[in-house]
Amino acid sequence: MKNLLGTGVALITPFNLDLSIDIDALKRVVNFCIEGNIDYLVVLGTTGESVTLTSAEKQLVIDVVVEENAGRLPLVVGIGGNNTHLLTEELLQSNLKDFTAVLSVSPYYNKPTQEGIYRHYKTLAQASEKPLILYNVPGRTGSNIEPETVLRLANDCSNIVGIKEASGDMTQLKRLINILPSDFLVISGDDFTALPTVTEGGAGVISVLGQGLPNEFSRMIRLGLQGKEKEAYALHNAMIEGMKLIFQEGNPAGIKSVLETHGICGPTVRLPLVEASSKLKGHINEFMRTFAKIRA
After folding, report:
1. Mapped to the 3 state alphabet, what secondary structure does 130-158 carry?
2. How far apart are CA 27 and CA 252, in angstroms?
3. 1 near 161, Cβ under 8 Å?
4. Whose CA is closest to 207, among 264, 172, 247?
5. Is 109 annotated as catalytic?
6. Is the peptide bond before 74 cis (omega within 30 degrees of 0)?
7. For 239-260, b where at least 16 C-beta lie within 10 A, e where not — what string?
8. d(CA 178, CA 235)
9. Whole-angstrom Cα distance, residue 193 to residue 28?
């Protein structure tokens, strides 16, 4: 799994004003990330508004990204949810030949016990032809995957190879890094903890802001992995306002506004999410102007 070290980005799904998928914009996003030295791409995650896409739309997104990427970067696909049986069927039926791994969010709403989480992922691991990356995001799921449960899964399931950890809890992140096998990927799922994660020995990040500032974000992570913390934190500090702004009114409304400043896509999201307010867009535009001056 060495090709999943560094900076991955959770790709948005751009929409036209009529809420159909903007295929040309999706292609621009893919190329912008590749040209910005991102290490891998994640398709159909939370940032991609996957829960509002039909099965046909999900396949369209996959087809567009795979074709545009043309084998240039490793790809990870999001297949997760709270119905273990249906997810097992989806994994068995999906054509995953173009993907390096599957990212699967912990069951949400059900609020399973740690034993339930363990059995859920063990069942998925047995069904998946590709390596599985756990996704812990308690703020969205209502439950936490405890480090001991991750260790149990890592020891018992050979094709569970990593975790995207988005609890925002550095104590938990450090514990994961300390107790898990050295080849198990501990990936930050939160832009704020991305650099601290790699300086503590983690594998990198699956970022949101990274697709808006790909060169700078990927450089920050590479510097962190190389132990060049002073240079890395200079970039972190320059981008931290952007990290705050893009989540101020929910994800991906903020990052779509960042990409709008680049002329890559429009700001449209699907309900129940709403487009970033004019006030937030103003703050994002100001951040991007200021950041451009710093970068220059």
Report:
1. CCEEEEECHHHHCCCCCHHHHHHHHHHCC
2. 17
3. yes
4. 247
5. no
6. no
7. beebbebbbebebbbbbbbbbb
8. 26
9. 27
Closest CA to 262 of 32, 2, 13: 32
- At 27, list the tokens: 């292609």
Q: What torsion, rounded to 10 degrees, do the Cα atoms 47, 163, 33, 198 define? A: 120
Catalytic residue, from 118, 135, 256, 281: name it. 135
Candidates 164, 174, 228, 233; catalytic one: 164
Return the bridge partners of 187, or none. 164, 204
Cβ atoms < 10 Å from Cβ of 113: 10
Beta carbons of 152 and 180 less than 8 angstroms apart: no
Q: Which residue has the tokens 């991955």?
A: 8
Helix (H, G, I), strand (E, B) or coil at 253: helix
Tokens standing for residue 76: 């990870």
Tokens of 185: 């990927």
Residue 244 bears catalytic tag? no
What tokens were used for 111?
A: 């609020």
What phi and psi values does residue 188 have, to the nearest 5 degrees? Answer: -70, 135
User: Which run of H or E residues covers position 161?
Assistant: strand 160-165
Residue 97 exposure: Cα atoms within 13 Å on the Cβ side: 3
pLDDT tens, the chain, 296 aa long: 789 999 999 999 999 999 999 999 999 999 999 999 999 999 999 999 999 999 999 999 999 999 999 999 999 999 999 999 999 999 999 999 999 999 999 999 999 999 999 999 999 999 999 999 999 999 999 999 999 999 999 999 999 999 999 999 999 999 999 999 999 999 999 999 999 999 999 999 999 999 999 999 999 999 999 999 999 999 999 999 999 999 999 999 999 999 999 999 999 999 999 999 999 999 999 999 999 887 76
227: left (phi over 0), alpha (psi -120 to 50) or beta: left
